[in-house]
Write a sequence for this structure.
């Protein structure tokens, strides 16, 4: 079987030779089942084919390891679709964002020029253009982010993150976009550092804090707390608001892609914010959940690995 593996000239998704010792077949011969590893193999005509390789150990009735079985599935069509999606992501990210940014900059310029003038109708039009441009920017960002996470093309740059300093700096930098004066931080001084990607962690916090501010009364506070009480080397983080809460029938589905609860159907966005939060938290090896009672606000909690 290993000789056949060598003749296939198997390569990784990065185009490098697939080490024999890391192959699904070798791992299965060691007693470890391996499901669906993407790779490419060389066909008889010299062309490379995209495949998914699975392998599992074969055991005798007494449990003794007696060999392995492997299956190779053609995933060329899937790989083509993924390549097309990456092309679309690049187009959306560049070809739509750039002209949209120009529209937003010009609208903000008009806002400054019209400020303090009696041209109320024109100023209102400029405000609406700027607001709509920001809405569209959020939608494009969410679509690109969701697609990248789903396609597993999101690489995490993990490093030690001191959460208290990180959140204070993030809130200072977000003062123009979030009502940071309503955010209360409650993090103990001896909280361990998290092992996280700062850019992705900021996106998690911005989404959760932004939602909490959006769906709670202006006179109330949003509380961000953290502790090492999660156990197993995890840090538990919570974002709590004092808003209307989440209906019981919506609670199990709020992390679904494009899902909008009864209380949020008229809000901005596509319903991707919490979905992206879940995908990013899980990419870090953590979990996320929500607790709420109607009329008593909502608490979103997630775990992160503590830095060693």
């Amino acid at each position: 079987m290993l000789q056949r593996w060598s003749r296939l000239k198997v390569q990784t998704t990065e185009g490098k030779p697939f080490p024999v010792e890391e192959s699904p077949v070798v791992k299965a011969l060691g007693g470890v089942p391996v499901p669906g590893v993407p790779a490419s193999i060389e066909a008889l005509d010299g062309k490379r084919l995209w495949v998914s390789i699975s392998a599992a150990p074969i055991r005798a009735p007494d449990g003794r390891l007696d060999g392995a079985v492997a299956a190779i599935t053609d995933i060329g069509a899937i790989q083509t679709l993924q390549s097309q999606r990456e092309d679309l992501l690049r187009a959306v990210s560049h070809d739509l964002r750039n002209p949209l940014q120009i529209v937003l900059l010009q609208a903000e310029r008009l806002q400054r020029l019209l400020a303090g003038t009696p041209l109320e109708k024109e100023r209102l039009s400029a405000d609406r253009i700027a607001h709509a441009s920001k809405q569209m920017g959020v939608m494009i960002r969410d679509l690109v982010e969701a697609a990248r996470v789903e396609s597993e093309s999101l690489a995490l740059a993990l490093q030690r993150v001191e959460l208290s300093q990180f959140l204070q700096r993030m809130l200072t930098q977000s003062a123009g976009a979030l009502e940071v004066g309503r955010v209360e931080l409650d993090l103990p001084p001896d909280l361990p550092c998290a092992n996280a990607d700062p850019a992705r962690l900021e996106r998690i916090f911005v989404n959760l804090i932004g939602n909490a501010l959006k769906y709670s009364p202006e006179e109330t506070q949003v509380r961000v707390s953290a502790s090492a009480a999660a156990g197993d080397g995890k840090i538990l983080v919570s974002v709590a608001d004092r808003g209307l809460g989440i209906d019981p029938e919506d609670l199990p589905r709020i992390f679904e892609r494009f899902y909008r609860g009864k209380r949020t159907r008229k809000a901005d966005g596509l319903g991707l914010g919490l979905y992206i939060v879940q995908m990013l938290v899980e990419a870090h090896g953590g979990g996320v959940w929500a607790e709420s009672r109607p009329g008593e606000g909502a608490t979103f909690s997630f775990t992160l690995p503590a830095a060693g």
